[in-house]
Structure formats: C-alpha cells, structure tokens
Amino acid sequence: MKRRIPNDLCRIYPEKSSDEQYTPVYAVAPIIKYIPGNKIVWCPFDTEHSEYVLALKAAGIRVVHSHILTGEDFFVYEPEEWDLIVSNPPFSIKQKVVERCLALGKPFALLLSNLWLNSSAPVHSVLSVWRCFGLVTGSVTSI
Length: 143
Fold this sequence. Notes:
Elements: H1 7-12, H2 25-28, E1 40-43, H3 51-58, E2 62-65, E3 84-87, H4 94-104, E4 108-110, H5 114-120, H6 123-132
Parallel strand pairs: 1-2, 1-3, 3-4
C-alpha cells in the first residue's frame, strides 16, 4: 500500500513533494549486517515509524531518529550522541546531504542511485567519498 504524502511535507517541499518516499524493509535489511552492534545509528530523515528505525531496532541496534516535521532539520540539528548515519535522504537535496555528511566527519550509508555517484555528483563530493573508503589517496587531476 502506498503511503500518502502528508500535507506538511508538501508545504516544506512544494516543488518536490515526491521527496517523501518510504523505504521498504527489504531495502533496509541487507545493510544491517554491516552495522557494528555497539554503535548508535542516526536516521536523520526518519520518524519512529520508518522502516529504517523499526528494522534497526528489531536487530538490536541503538537508533536515534529525527525528521524535519518534528522540527529537526538535518542541516541544523545534530543529536547529542550518535556514531553513524543510515538513511534514505530526500533526493532533491542529495548533494547537500552528502556534503553535510562529509562535513560531520563520521561514517554514513545513504540510499542513493549509483547513477548520481557516477555522473551527476560534483567531483569534489565523489572524491571525498572515495577518500573516506580509502579508494583514492593524494591528489587527483581528473576522473
């Protein structure tokens, strides 16, 4: 069953009301094995009913969540305690989300299309992600 987009979100994302897309549990389950059990996961675009929050908690992982509808804007808000980010960000602002994640300096896993990473992402964002994973070192003149 497709969930209806709340009117409040249409107000926040007037031109991009499709940004509120709910991730099915089958898309969350494969990443759980990669999350260390002693870490606190921040789901910054999620409510308590999000499949990310529900699946991670069911796996015994500590989770903090936030959502713009509850006044916790990802670009301003940061929980007091967290170790890594896992979420499905609003696609219309994915570049800004990746840049904020990189600026926070902690590990993150975001549901993004590889098309964006391979063709649309700014070179500095891609290089920063590659450096985080040790895929590139030193200076790079072209990709």
